[in-house]
Each structure stands twice: as C-alpha cells, then as structure tokens.
Design brief:
Elements: E1 3-6, H1 21-27, E2 34-38, H2 45-52, E3 61-63, H3 72-76, H4 89-96, E4 114-116, H5 125-134, E5 140-142, E6 150-153, E7 165-168, E8 173-176, E9 186-195, E10 199-206
Helix pairs in contact: 4-5
C-alpha cells in the first residue's frame, strides 16, 4: 500500500534526473507537491538514495516502517551532501565523535518533519541520533509504535516502595523512575521484534550501568 497526499495547488515540478521505474510508480505524477509518502515495507537503501536525489521540497512525513531491507545508509541518505555515496553508520559515528563535518548543501527534503522507521531491524539508534543532529528541523524519528510510547506504571512493587514509572519516547530512548544504587534507569531500545499474537519483544541498552565495583 502506498499512501500519497499532495498539497493544494502546487508549483511546477523541478527538473530532475530520469526516475527509475520503481520510484516513478511510488511517487506518481506531480511528486514535487507530496506532503506525505508512505513506503512501508517497500523502503530500501536504493529507493531512499534515489529519493534523496529527487527534489521533494514539500515532503513533511516519510513512513518506512516494517522494512527489512532498509539500513542506516538509506536512512542517512536523507541528509544529502554526498554525490558519490550516501552516509552510512561509520559516517554517523564519525560525525557524532567530531571527526566529520555536516554537509554544507541543503538537505533533499528541507520540510521533512517526521520519519517512521519502526520495526526496521537493520537500522540503529546511533543513526537516529546522528540524523536528529544533522537535520535539526526533523521533529520526530519514530522507532517505537505509538502504543508503546509515553508513561506506564509497572507491577514492580515491593517492600513499600512506589511502583516504577517507565517512560518511552518515539525514538526508542527511555527513562525509568528507579531509585537506589546500580543505575540502570535510562538508555535506548536497541531492537524491537514482533511476535505472533501482537507481542513485541524489546532489547534494551542502558547508558548508566554500574557494576558497583564487582568488575
């Protein structure tokens, strides 16, 4: 399923390189006026790299959830600025470490505000952090289903202590209201996996772990 919404009116389509057959089908006519593009499982590195080379001045929402082909390279191609190849995970780490500068050229989708890569197992949280910094206007990179975000009380209650409140954000970062030594109260969701029956398994990476001197 491909969902397309267009802005009212619309400026003339800019001149762009010839589109591949796949991208031509996805974008349809008058693609320069697109506001929302829903690729879902069709999203792939090659498709997003070509998409990034196509002026989409009005695109605000890009949905790529449940793609098993999409990787960090495809996601980071939305940054633009590299004609020979898109950014990849190594570039993201180098940028966050201060050894790689952001592109000086304008991003291919300057109005992009929301990117959904929920259940895209080959994308990483590192790329999400880099993308948010490289594209400051990007308000949301969603890596979690809507129903899993927000605050919830856990049943972990004992010895008179209050129940823990767990808070998850759209990008997979989390914070637990957890007191006491040892930390383990904040971090990010490293991986989500859908199971039959609507069950979702998550692998968490804590960023405040302490062994209390045991190792």
């Amino acid at each position: 399923k491909i969902l397309r919404r267009r802005a009212p009116g619309g400026a003339p389509a800019p001149r762009v390189p010839p589109l591949s057959g796949e991208l031509r089908v996805v974008l349809g006519p008058d693609f320069a006026a697109l506001l929302t593009l829903d690729l879902r499982a069709l999203a792939s590195d090659s498709l997003l790299v070509e998409l990034a080379a196509t002026p989409l001045p009005r695109l605000q929402v890009l949905l790529c959830s449940r793609s098993t082909a999409l990787t960090d390279q495809g996601v980071l191609s939305l940054v633009g600025g590299m004609s020979d190849r898109p950014w990849d995970t190594t570039d993201a780490a180098a940028f966050l470490g201060g050894s790689l500068k952001a592109p000086e050229t304008a991003p291919p989708c300057p109005q992009l505000r929301e990117l959904d890569i929920t259940f895209c197992p080959r994308t990483t949280y590192l790329a999400t952090v880099a993308l948010r910094r490289l594209l400051p206007a990007l308000a949301s990179v969603r890596r979690m289903p809507l129903w899993m975000t927000g605050e919830n009380e856990t049943p972990f209650d004992g010895k008179g202590r209050p129940k823990e409140v767990h808070k998850y954000w759209a990008d997979g970062s989390f914070r637990f209201a957890r007191a006491g030594p040892g930390g383990e109260s904040k971090g990010f969701v490293q991986r989500l996996q859908e199971r039959p029956g609507g069950v979702v398994c998550e692998a968490l990476q804590y960023v405040d772990f302490s062994s209390q001197g045991e190792w």
